[in-house]
């Protein structure tokens, strides 16, 4: 923040800033100032240091800051935009000059990845601590803190997929909480329409990426595009949706314990969904059941 973001306001370097970067500091750095502030405020006050003598207190730090840690989600959601901007102007003289002044071996993009890496390291730390604290004081709190961090990572991961949905007419933010997302084989069986279509649909599954919200289930088709020779970025083009208030579920499908059915309008439309494992199927069924009840 000091070596790069502040330097964008340095009059002596302004002429080196590439035009693609003009007024785009927020896109490049996301809410990094907010993350910095958060750590400065809580870590800097000795709150974590106090736990050196009493490690069992550490879990409470995480539980107390549960809401605050959501700032990482915002950072990760902005990351694809930040990376695209960096690809455009990362090799400019401005960044080279800043890096030279700081005497850093790594360029700025390596540091912009740190918050993404950081959010996944907390749960590893808590897992290690749990190994050392079998049934001692504070174990239950550590387990709760670990569950909280895994929940935040899941939420970050889900939201990263959600921002890649294209072609949905409505406002995704009005669909309620995103509970689950993942890829499945889907067969459809429509009562209406030509019988031949029905038979064909039986055999060849469609690959669909499902997003389960409290109000709606979205079916999307995953597309992977190469971005200027870089890694593939996935996008999910919207195909159809089912209102959760009008669906029913059949937990078992004859002949395959990884399949379940979601049906609509008293079985007028039936979607046979095949998960990659029985465990995954059961997780989805229990989430769908919660919504339906």
Structure in words:
With 293 residues, the chain is of the alpha+beta class. The protein is 42% helix and 21% strand. It has ten helices and eight strands. The chain has helices spanning 25-29, 32-43, 58-64, 71-89, 93-102, 108-112, 114-131, 139-162, 195-203, 278-292, and strands spanning 165-166, 178-190, 206-213, 216-226, 232-243, 247-250, 259-264, 269-274. It has an eight-stranded mixed β-sheet with strand order 1-5-4-3-2-8-7-6, sandwiched between helices. Helix 3 (58-64) runs parallel beside helix 8 (139-162), helix 4 packs across helix 8 (139-162) and helix 7 packs antiparallel against helix 8. InterPro entries: DBL_dom_sf, DH_dom, GDS_CDC24_CS, PH-like_dom_sf, PH_domain, RhoGEF_Guanine_NuclExch_SF, SOS1_NGEF_PH. This is Guanine nucleotide exchange factor DBS. GO terms for molecular function: guanyl-nucleotide exchange factor activity. Residues 1-159 form the DH domain. Keywords: Guanine-nucleotide releasing factor, Phosphoprotein.
**What's the shape?**
flat
Mind summarizing the main beta sheet? 8 strands, mixed
Number of helices: 10
**Termini distance?**
48 Å
Order of helices and strands: HHHHHHHHEEHEEEEEEH
- Based on helices, strands and strand pairing, what is the structural class? alpha+beta
Count of β-strands: 8
Organism: Eudyptes sclateri
Domain DH: 1-159
InterPro entries: DBL_dom_sf, DH_dom, GDS_CDC24_CS, PH-like_dom_sf, PH_domain, RhoGEF_Guanine_NuclExch_SF, SOS1_NGEF_PH
Pfam families: RhoGEF (PF00621), SOS1_NGEF_PH (PF22697)
């Amino acid at each position: 923040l000091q070596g790069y973001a502040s330097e964008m306001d340095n009059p002596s370097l302004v002429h080196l800033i590439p035009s693609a970067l003009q007024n785009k500091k927020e896109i490049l750095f996301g809410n990094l100032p907010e993350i910095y502030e958060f750590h400065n405020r809580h870590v800097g006050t000795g709150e974590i240091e106090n736990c050196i003598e009493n490690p069992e207190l550490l879990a409470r730090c995480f539980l107390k800051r549960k809401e605050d840690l959501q700032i990482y989600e915002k950072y990760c959601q902005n990351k694809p935009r930040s990376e695209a901007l960096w690809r455009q102007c990362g090799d400019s003289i401005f960044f080279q000059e800043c890096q030279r002044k700081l005497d850093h071996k790594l360029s700025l993009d390596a540091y912009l990845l740190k918050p993404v890496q950081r959010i996944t390291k907390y749960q590893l730390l808590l897992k290690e601590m749990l190994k050392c604290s079998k049934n001692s004081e504070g174990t239950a709190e550590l387990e709760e803190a670990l569950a909280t961090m895994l929940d935040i990572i899941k939420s970050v991961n889900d939201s990263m997929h959600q921002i890649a949905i294209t072609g949905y007419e409505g406002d995704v933010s009005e669909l309620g909480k995103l509970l689950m997302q993942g890829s499945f084989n889907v067969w459809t069986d429509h009562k209406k329409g030509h019988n031949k279509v029905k038979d064909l649909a039986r055999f060849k599954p469609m690959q669909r990426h499902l997003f389960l919200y409290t109000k709606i289930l979205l079916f999307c088709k995953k597309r992977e595009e190469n971005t200027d020779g870089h890694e593939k970025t996935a996008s999910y083009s919207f195909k159809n949706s089912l209102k959760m208030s009008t669906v029913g579920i059949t937990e078992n499908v004859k002949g395959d314990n990884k399949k379940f059915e979601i049906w609509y309008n008293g079985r007028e439309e039936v979607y046979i969904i095949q998960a990659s494992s029985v465990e995954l199927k059961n997780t989805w069924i229990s989430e769908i059941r919660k919504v339906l009840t």
